[in-house]
Design a protein that fits this description.
Elements lengths: L14 H13 L6 E3 L6 E5 L4 E5 L6 E4 L13 E4 L5 E9 L2 E11 L2 E4 L3 H11 L7 H4 L2 E9 L5 E11 L2 E10 L4 E3 L2 H8 L17 H25 L4 H23 L7 H20 L9 H6 L2
Parallel strand pairs: 7-9
Antiparallel strand pairs: 1-2, 2-3, 3-4, 5-6, 6-7, 7-8, 9-10, 10-11, 11-12
Helix pairs in contact: 5-7, 6-7
Length: about 300
Amino acid sequence: MPLPTRYLVVVGLAFADLAPFALAEESEPSPTPSKFTTGSGAFFIESDGFDASLVSTNDSAQRIKIPVPGEDDSLNPDDEFHLSPNDEWIFAGRHGGSCLRSADLYHRAGANTVERLKDFDENAWKQGAKLHAMKTDWRAEGSCAMTFFVAWSNDSGRALVGLLGGPDRRTNHFGYVYYNLRTRHFETSEYLRKLNATRTGALPCAEPVDPLPKKEEIKARADALDLRLNEVFAARLAKNPDTVEQNRKSQRDWIKARDAGLKLYLSSVPKTDQENRKLQFLADVTATRIDSLNQPEEEVFDFWERKAGE
């Protein structure tokens, strides 16, 4: 599969004096909402930093409010969103304070309803420790604890969750755990145990639950995604000229981590299935990279890069 090659306050004034200030404040334009384009492309997520909605791509009047946290001062609203390939699930993240970041998981339960799963972040840490993805539930300890989106499996059967935490921000530990979207339980696998054991920044993918499609279908998807990655990356460079070198370095690092990740992934796959699994891995990590490049942040920095940088 060809690789992307272009990367390498006013006090003491009379009431009348306040009127111009009030008028000026009212005339200021509202901030432009951030747009998160993931999933199948049939929907996108629009957020203004306080509220978020799932919007139909074909008809922007068709929108479903996402019940993001932040109704009181104790919780910040979500600031990043990732829509699953089947448009049924939304993984979101929010800042909680110094060395604290939480995740929320939402389910599109019906045509006009999005529900927030209860205690998703708390359970991710609790089960992550139980499944030995992390030695300690640092969230329960009140220590540095950050939860990140990593990837969806292409069949929308699993969400791969990244955990980073430790006794303080200078001593962090890393771990990966699956959330099975079919059973609604956290789980691990032989592959994840190997991934958690490595200290390098090997690129991860989320293993599918369903059997793989035919080789021809996987290859066609991988090739199409590779072309799409070139387009998205070129558009990102054009949109953010001040961060060209950072993004090019990030892409070079991504290719290196992808190759290392593929080797590790195939080490858990029977030889008779390795060709199909190779194509599946390349397609899935490319789809995840496209999702990452489509996030509104100027510079891409993913969970695997955090691990690689320590």
